[in-house]
Amino acid sequence: MNPSDDLRDLEDVATNQPNIVFILSDDQDAKLNSLDYMPLLQKHLMSKGTHFQKHYCTVAWCCPSRVSLWTGKAAHNTNVTNVVPPFGGYPQFLDRHLNESWVPLWLQENGYNTYYTGKLMNYHTVDNYNNPYPSGFNGTDFLLDPGTYSYLNPIFQRNKDAPVNHTNEYNTDLVAKKGLGLIDEAVQGGQGRPFFVTIAPIAPHADFEIVYTEDHEYVRTINSPPVSAERHKDLFPDEIVPRTPNFNPLDKPSGVDFLAELEPLSDENITYNDHWHRQRLRSLQVIDELVEDVVQKLEKYGILDNTYIFYSSDNGYHISQHRLQPGKGCGWEEDINVPLIVRGPNIPAGGVVDFPTSHTDLAPTWFKVLGIPLREDFDGLPIPLTADEITEWEGSGKAKEHVQIEFWSDITGGEYNTPPAGISNPAPDNTYKGLRILGEYYSFYYSVWCSGSHQLYDMTTDPYQLNNLYQTASSEISSPPTNTTVTICNANYTLVKVTQRLDSLLFVLKTCTGKACSDPWNSLMPNTGINSLRQAMDPKYDSFFENMKRVGYERCEGGYIPDAEGEVYESGDAYQGGEKLRLARDPREWWNRA
């Protein structure tokens, strides 16, 4: 049907509640300049909308990140922490009853029609797609394993139909075509209801061959660089991975644990990774074309000005940074900082924002712009989108400055690929809790690993995370201060004191729920007015932070198991008049202190 053939309800659609089109790429970087190679996205979204440059995923892996995005909850609250069972994938999503409580259902309950095409989440397969179907959609056309990541042999499953193999058809072109068709369906068959359409291509993810047994049990994944559409195969012949300071550092390794054991990449390996990078850029070109097609489709229907377009990715990506093979899963900025561009009603054109936001903020943001009351169990906050909201947020002194990062796995941040001969790809424990904190005059990344290792980077002076300051502090962060200092708002503080604050904040965040996730300082230091690291550095709080419990693990696990995660924050651990409230639980503690 032509848009001009059915104009009956278009005026009503254009003047009613706003619509949303969400384009979600897969593994797209924000730090390796991939957006620079998407001129149509720049033309239609970045120049007409706002770019949130400090947007973060909270877990740098496909399925856990997507589930957090669709629930507004941190991964430790969804307990979907891996890409395959038992700790993740579609089966774990079902086992945690999240199919009964997530964005599509909530939107339908509030009068929205919802549609989805492309990749939903890992381990959504030809065997389990209907047991049960994903809930909350008016129309779907999902990619299914084992064809999700196959660029030339994808498997799609439409609504309640049986899966269909598309042999020798290009995956992303099909997703784009189906996504545009769902917009047609939403406008022409939606009976005037507002809509939310998600288009989720796999680019620029690696090309995967998923191997199963005859009983359809997962065995392994064999992957290779992304595949481009034929029309884009010769683009960017001379592009190479940006040679940033953290690109394959030769003088010393970065990080801790397995990261500290990586050898420098060989010339052969670097050549291989440069090719991988070019293939990623080429694979993104169909998504770039899709952005323009979506804008033109909405414009043709007369609803562009009443539709928000969100563009993001599930997680970031590294290629040769810190001596790593192509992949994700680490706390490096390349892995956790992801694109977010928003165009829509009252969104500043050409805007650039630098305060931190995260994927757990997206569901609350959608609720706010669609006029739906926020849920109390959201771990995130609505992102300020209009010029007035942004100005108020930045000037209020209450802007969120933190993002909590977490990861569970026994695999590296590599792409689990089979590298060229002679190139190693170790598989150690990679489980950690992290904190990214960005204030007006300071910027830090802090993490605690299940092994007991720590990382601390002053990203104002070390944006490429090459100098782990924790090594120059003390192995015991409660030990006496050293002479090494960092600067916060023109004042110098010892590393020990700074780390005590960061660790205490992370101690709250690692098991936070609801408001404790979005306002952890208030949970940690109620009734003090403290809402930033700068304020918490006041020396009068030194004793409290010195005696605070510490982030730690009982053991390393490949998923979220509470008794492996060490001590947890309780309300009694909060600050009150220089003492922790938990002391009041046992009079003997007061007596001994006296």
Automatic annotation (TrEMBL):
Pfam families listed in its UniProt record: Sulfatase (PF00884)
Single GO MF annotation: arylsulfatase activity
Domain of life: Eukaryota
Sequence ranges assigned to domain Sulfatase N-terminal in this UniProt record: 18-372
CDD domains: G6S
EC number: 3.1.6.1
Catalytic activity: an aryl sulfate + H2O = a phenol + sulfate + H(+)
This protein's record includes keyword Hydrolase: yes
This protein's UniProt keywords: Hydrolase
Modified residue annotations for 3-oxoalanine (Cys): C62
PTMs per UniProt: The conversion to 3-oxoalanine (also known as C-formylglycine, FGly), of a serine or cysteine residue in prokaryotes and of a cysteine residue in eukaryotes, is critical for catalytic activity.
Enzyme class: hydrolase
Protein name: Arylsulfatase
Annotated source species: Lojkania enalia
